[in-house]
Amino acid sequence: MSAADRLLGLGDQVAFVTGAASGIGEAVAHCLAELGARVAIFDRDAEGAARVAREIRARDLDASEVVVDITGEAAVIDAVADAAARLGAPTILVNNAGVQDREPMLDITGDEWDRIQRINLRGAFLMLRECAKAMVAAGRPGAIVNIASLGVEHPMIPGLAAYSASKGGLKALTRNAAFELMAHGIRVNAILPGGVATPGSSHGAARKVVGPGSTRPAPLGQLMPPDIAAAVAFLVSPAAQKITGQSLAVDSGWLLT
Ligand SMILES: NC(=O)c1ccc[n+]([C@@H]2O[C@H](COP(=O)([O-])OP(=O)(O)OC[C@H]3O[C@@H](n4cnc5c(N)ncnc54)[C@H](O)[C@@H]3O)[C@@H](O)[C@H]2O)c1
Hints:
Elements: H1 3-8, E1 14-18, H2 23-34, E2 38-43, H3 46-57, E3 63-67, H4 73-87, E4 92-95, H5 110-138, E5 142-147, H6 161-181, E6 186-193, H7 199-207, H8 225-236, E7 247-250
Parallel strand pairs: 1-2, 1-4, 2-3, 4-5, 5-6, 6-7
The structure holds nicotinamide-adenine-dinucleotide.
């Protein structure tokens, strides 16, 4: 086995990736499949999920779609159980599905607040709980990566208070889940991406222009979905087998400026 395979190879791994019909999740699904994992594309967008799974299979890699809205508890329980029965218990979960809709601080309604927490935080929690249960039942070590946001550390764009609060919750969930699950050999880490060019980020901006965002450039260049996928690939890999409870900023140097 080559050093690259030993450190980064994912042969014999089953990866569930949420929100993989678009943007960052799509790049993560391709990347983990390239490294040898069987990948399940969890998304509420049936057409997009089928397209991504088809495109990965066209590369002679292993992918299938699982259509689910992660806000539904019963739906998540069924989807994880069905996918595990078809593909094998997950050894990797990438909790990536999320919305980044914007609303000025003074206008956010309670309903809008709840909707964002429900998708970005509760949905991620439900997926984490169900996948961790499946990992424990299978008796295999596992790796979970939660996609939070650099907005947890520093505001970048106005209108993202509810969003950033949900991602702050996800960062706290990461640490607590890592603490409770390490006895089962399950690692839990988070990535805090800076601004990444995706359909979701441009859609969020188009829906509501709340005000000008930071004009500070990212010193190492515009972040693209494969940049985040590469960090996910490291955190779920054997190379990271002693890393848990951490939040890794992938921000192209923005926080340092
Ligand atoms: N793009 C950025 O600048 C950026 C920065 C920091 C963090 N993030 C985070 O990265 C993740 C991916 O963002 P993206 O920019 O690729 O967005 P995107 O909109 O391109 O993709 C998000 C995917 O999540 C799916 N999804 C949304 N709600 C869902 C639900 N309830 N159930 C199932 N699937 C659902 C969508 O259908 C879509 O396929 C999000 O959690 C986002 O908050 C993005």
